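anyone seen this seq b4? input:
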Amino acid sequence: MALSRQSLSVRQRVGSSSAAAGQGIGRSIRVTAWVSFVVEVLIIGTGGAVRLTGSGMGCPTWPTCTADSLIPTSELSFHSLIEFGNRMMTGVVGIAVLVLVLLLWRLRAERRNIFTLAVVVLGGVVAQAVVGGITVWTGLNPFIVGFHYVASLVLVCVSAAILVRIRQAPGPRKLAVPSWFAALVHATSFVVAVTIAVGVLTTASGPHSGDVNAGRTGFDVELLEHLHAWPAYLAFALSIVLVLTAYRWGGAVFRWSIALLLVELVQIALGLYQARNGLPELAVGAHMVLAALLAATMTVLILCLKRQSPIPAETVSSSSRS
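predicted toks r here
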């Protein structure tokens, strides 16, 4: 009975929402935040297309496409169109987040956390454009390409955090779940991060270099595939535990635990398929995009662990008297 009352209490805290949640956040901000998130994910897809079609040096210079032209010329192949299209996506991503920053400007004081996150994404997009140029200058160095991808994942996670924060009320927050469960979630996030990092290294050592003349890491790809699979299975097992324990509380934590488990299930199935079928380009590209969604889902779950702290009664009382 005591356990049931505790579970009910946690369920109420996890599922509770303040009437002030999203205060000052208009529809235009919400829509723009979603657009920013979607294009952040899409540019990972277009970047993957550049790599998987061997178009990494389709535009052999940067910031121009060739030494004499900003855009692809008729002498270049379709690879240049794919590479240039990905560069144009950077502009789309930048415009989306710039609009978001401008919309949040009037709320920069009362919703500083959201405004700061948006500025971080904007700065990250600019930095990513430069890193993209460096990858071209270095002839698609696999370590720089890998860093380029990881940085894109980080921007996806920050964009996901913005989507969560705009639905939450401002103010201090505290844990809405037991501390042991929060620790388990953070442990799972660490394993997920290791899985993604080893996956990036595996891809950097595999056949999809982005150009026939691009170098690889020189590591044993078969060994890396196993090293990539082990933490993936561990993350999946931990996610099963998360779902089973979060079931009694319900709310956002339970829903996002299920989402995390489902994304991991698809990722594992896709990973097994591509490993057993010679790493087909479409499967590898989907695996890259799903890794971004996995990281975003993990981010949302972590942010759902806390709820807004209640305002002390004496503070409310003094405010009403004044």
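Confidence is low (pLDDT under 50) at residues 1-9, 12-20, 315-322. The CA atoms of residues 202 and 226 lie 10 Å apart. kinda curious what u guys think
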